[in-house]
Amino acid sequence: MKQLFTLFLGLVLSVGIAQKKELKQAQKLFKASKISEASASLKTNQALIEGYDDVKIKDQYYLLKGQIARLEEDFQVSYDNLTLVQNEALVAPELMLLTSDIVNAAIKQSEQQEFVLSAKNLFLAYTIDKQANVDYLYYAATNAVNAKDYPLALEYYLMLKEMNYTGIVTKYFVTEVATGEESEVSNAEYTIFLKSKDYTNHREEDTASKYPEIVKNIALIYNDLGQKEKAISAVKDAREANPGDVGLILTEANIYIELDEKERYQELIVEALEQDPNNAVLYYNLGVVSGDLGDGTKSREFYEKAIELDPSMSNAYLNLVALILKDEAAIVEQMNSLTNSRADNVKYDKLKKKREDIYIECVPILKSLIDLDDTNLDAIKTLKNIYGTIGDNDGFKAMKELEDKAQQ
């Protein structure tokens, strides 16, 4: 029995010596920057080392595997190995190096528009230390949006929303007495400058919270994915977080217009105008929706207001003309239905005059647009046809010349 025990103990010792020898050999290769050789050495002795129950040897082994994988930019494999190291003091510096390398790689990938890879690397950097690196999760979501990988972006944004992430950063500023120039300084510098007579106007300033942006993007993504109810719920959460955000109001409005709920859309645009009363685009949109809802009077008012605020908005001119000409078809139909009787001839003349009045009403609107843009073919052709109908030959010729010039 003693012989067996001695033999077994000797076998264990010889295996342990072999493990240490092979591990040290791999470590020497690594220190000599022979990364591929070090990796091959570890793979050759993988079973030998992993099968032996020695925490110190295993820590060194997994640390080295993590280091090799990091230099090979196989960051996930590096992290997976480093998490197997039980000695926190041993692994902590390597995790910091890994985080730095991951972030640097993600920046390069983003610059090369490899947004998905960048997003996933930034998420890994966040995973390494979720408290210290939470900002990387936000940037991961941003890169996922840039990649148009909306399900991935949604996953990240929902995590940020769950933790009520704001991304608020406090910035510190001081003014140099001698020059009067204000500079941004670090927190540590700020503490020192507080005691210095050479600096004055010490102030702190918090950056804006990113939370409203996050919930807004969640709503937009749900909407893009066709999940309208979730989108509406998310945008309501966003508006509670920032009720004065015109962008959020418009996001909700756009969801309702896609649901063909034009009345609710109209209400929200009016609400947006309370926050941004000089927004010509909002008035234009109201003009479109009011026209769709059959309120021509309101539609015209909104188009005219849009033009007043932004005289270069060509679509507002054209839509206004189309709105005025809307009754023309019914007038022509009435004219065509009349007979050659004396009574009908009187009616015909009145309808003809009414039709011409409509055309003449459109002339100054179209001329104003053409004065702003003499290449707008829609406006030129419409005005040319009007001149032809009302018998203005000079106007017709002028528009024909403009049309030919614009088409060259």
Ordered list of secondary-structure elements with their pairings:
Blueprint: H1 2-31, H2 35-44, H3 46-50, H4 55-71, H5 75-82, H6 88-111, H7 115-128, H8 134-146, H9 150-162, E1 170-176, E2 182-185, H10 187-193, E3 199-206, H11 211-224, H12 228-241, H13 246-258, H14 262-275, H15 280-292, H16 296-309, H17 314-324, H18 328-337, H19 342-372, H20 377-390, H21 393-407
Antiparallel strand pairs: 1-2, 1-3
Helix pairs in contact: 1-2, 1-4, 2-4, 4-5, 4-6, 5-6, 6-7, 7-8, 8-9, 9-11, 11-12, 11-13, 12-13, 13-14, 14-15, 15-16, 15-17, 16-17, 17-19, 18-19, 19-20, 20-21
Largest sheet: 3 strands, antiparallel
The backbone outline, from C-alpha atoms, is elongated
Total DSSP E strands:
3
Terminal Cα separation, in Å? 107 Å
The tally of helices reads 21
Range of strand content:
under 5%
Low-confidence residue ranges: 5-15
Describe the structure.
By secondary structure, the protein is mainly α. Among the domains are: 13-86, no CATH class; 170-206, no CATH class; 328-407, no CATH class. Helices cover 75% and strands 5% of the residues. The chain contains 21 helices and three strands. It has helices spanning 2-31, 35-44, 46-50, 55-71, 75-82, 88-111, 115-128, 134-146, 150-162, 187-193, 211-224, 228-241, 246-258, 262-275, 280-292, 296-309, 314-324, 328-337, 342-372, 377-390, 393-407, and strands spanning 170-176, 182-185, 199-206. A three-stranded antiparallel beta sheet has the order 2-1-3. Strand 1 (170-176) and strand 2 (182-185) form a beta hairpin. Helix 6 (88-111) runs antiparallel to helix 7 (115-128) and helix 20 (377-390) packs antiparallel against helix 21. The radius of gyration is 36 Å and the shape is elongated. The termini are far apart. The relative contact order is 0.03. Mean pLDDT is 87; it is low at 5-15.
